[in-house]
């Protein structure tokens, strides 16, 4: 879990926008693409757009090393304009490392990368001006108010005072923080800070939004609200790139996703395709006394294509869950509880990584 208290970070200086690492990244006025001062509708009226078929993110054999640790081990990505693309993977899979390279705040160690048609090494400031970034860790200025955080960030992007003021009000409304506008950030709840970070990422009307675990720490209502807002942004043409541990989030939001493990992409496709390729139509969940799980798993092995033994239950992967349950009963097995359900991404994940995402 993230620490709830404020994290020390360098105070940003005018003309510089805070990077996710806490260090300042230069968005020097004049060297960034001029931002339309009145732009409030994401996806509208863009200048210098690459042609529609240009991928917004394209990576080939992309690598990130930290000393001897290879966090990203040669991944290929192709993110099209207007789609919602997800990275799913366990802790340490390399999701944030990949996102930070795409966000142009962490140079690649090897391979090729193009973001919004440009080279992050040479065109970082121009690309960053057109990105919205929600880092995994909030980097808000905790001594400023909610409104000031949005206004200061907007000024980094060269927006006029009047449009920054208007944009801040809209975004507070968006994040349901209008009633906290004049409160300092420090005492806000973790979920409110997260919502403010997300609002802040939209200040420059980005065409590509990078969201690293956007809803971790949000309550269910706030998550659903955010999904709705992200869906609306997407329908207005904003491309979304997100990481998540939540399978339902990936299923709800992502047109396509990659499953990462140990720095590599181990599967790629739409949620439906992944389920069809890596799981069975149905899953029979059986609970027995814990001590019986291993022995029972042997006696039901032939009833399913695959059996997983989890700490609290057995999962039988089969096209016909009810039929498998009847056969288990016919063999005299008496589970404490049973459930037949459809396969989900959680099952795909378990199959591919050998781990469940329950932490
Ligand atoms: N700045 C860094 N310096 C050294 N090692 C790093 C750094 N950032 C990441 N790593 C290492 O790279 C690997 C991948 O980390 P990364 O943060 O990309 O994973 P992740 O998939 O985002 O995990 P999580 O789900 O926990 O956020 C880990 O072994 C991590 O320790
Ligand atoms: Mg991460």
Helix content: 25-40%
Distance between the termini: 10 Å
Structural class by sheet pairing and helices: alpha/beta
CATH hierarchy: architecture of the largest domain: 3-Layer(aba) Sandwich
Can you tell me the overall shape?
Answer: globular
Unreliable spans: 1-47
Task: Describe the overall structure.
The protein has eleven helices and 15 strands. It has helices spanning 95-102, 120-128, 146-156, 161-174, 190-201, 220-235, 247-253, 271-278, 293-299, 321-330, 345-353, and strands spanning 16-18, 24-26, 57-66, 69-79, 84-88, 110-115, 131-134, 208-212, 239-244, 256-261, 264-269, 282-287, 306-309, 314-318, 337-342. Mean pLDDT is 85; it is low at 1-47. Helices cover 31% and strands 24% of the residues. The chain has two domains: 16-38 and 51-270, P-loop containing nucleotide triphosphate hydrolases (Rossmann fold, 3-Layer(aba) Sandwich), CATH 3.40.50.300; 280-342, YebC, transcriptional regulation domain (Alpha-Beta Plaits). It is globular. The structure holds adenosine-5'-triphosphate and magnesium ion.
Brief description of this entry?
With 359 residues, the chain is α/β, with parallel strands linked by helices. Helices cover 31% and strands 24% of the residues.
Characteristic terms for this protein:
359 residues, alpha/beta, Rossmann fold, Alpha-Beta Plaits, four-stranded antiparallel beta sheet, 24% strand, globular, disordered N terminus, binds adenosine-5'-triphosphate, binds magnesium ion
């Amino acid at each position: 879990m993230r620490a709830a208290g404020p994290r020390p970070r360098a105070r940003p200086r005018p003309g510089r926008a805070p990077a996710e690492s806490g260090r300042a990244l230069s968005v020097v006025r004049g060297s960034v693409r001029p931002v339309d001062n009145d732009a409030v509708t994401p996806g509208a009226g863009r200048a210098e757009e690459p042609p529609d078929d240009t991928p917004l993110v394209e990576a080939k054999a992309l690598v990130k090393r930290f000393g001897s640790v290879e966090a990203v081990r040669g991944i290929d990505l192709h993110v099209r304009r207007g789609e919602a693309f997800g990275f799913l993977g366990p802790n340490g899979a390399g999701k944030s490392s990949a996102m930070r390279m795409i966000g142009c705040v962490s140079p690649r160690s090897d391979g090729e990368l193009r973001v919004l048609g440009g080279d992050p090494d040479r065109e970082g400031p121009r690309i960053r001006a057109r990105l919205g970034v929600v880092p995994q860790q909030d980097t808000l200025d905790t001594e400023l108010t909610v409104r000031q955080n949005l206004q200061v960030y907007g000024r980094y992007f060269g927006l006029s005072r009047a449009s920054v003021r208007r944009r801040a009000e809209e975004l507070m409304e968006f994040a349901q923080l209008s009633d906290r506008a004049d409160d300092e950030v420090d005492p806000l709840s973790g979920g409110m800070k997260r919502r403010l970070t997300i609002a802040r990422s939209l200040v420059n009307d980005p065409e590509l939004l990078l969201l690293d675990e956007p809803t971790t720490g949000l309550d269910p209502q706030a998550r659903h609200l955010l999904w709705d807002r992200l869906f609306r942004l997407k329908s207005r043409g904003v491309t979304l790139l997100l990481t998540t541990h939540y399978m339902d989030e990936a299923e709800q939001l992502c047109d396509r996703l990659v499953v990462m493990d140990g720095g590599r992409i181990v599967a790629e496709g739409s949620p439906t395709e992944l389920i069809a390729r890596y799981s069975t139509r149905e899953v029979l969940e059986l609970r027995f006394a814990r001590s019986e799980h291993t022995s029972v798993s042997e006696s039901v092995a032939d009833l399913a294509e695959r059996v997983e033994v989890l700490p609290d239950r057995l999962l039988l992967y089969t096209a016909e869950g009810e039929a498998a349950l009847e056969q288990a009963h016919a063999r005299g097995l008496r589970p404490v509880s049973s459930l037949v359900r459809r396969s989900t991404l959680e099952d795909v994940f378990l199959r591919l990584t050998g781990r469940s995402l329950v932490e």
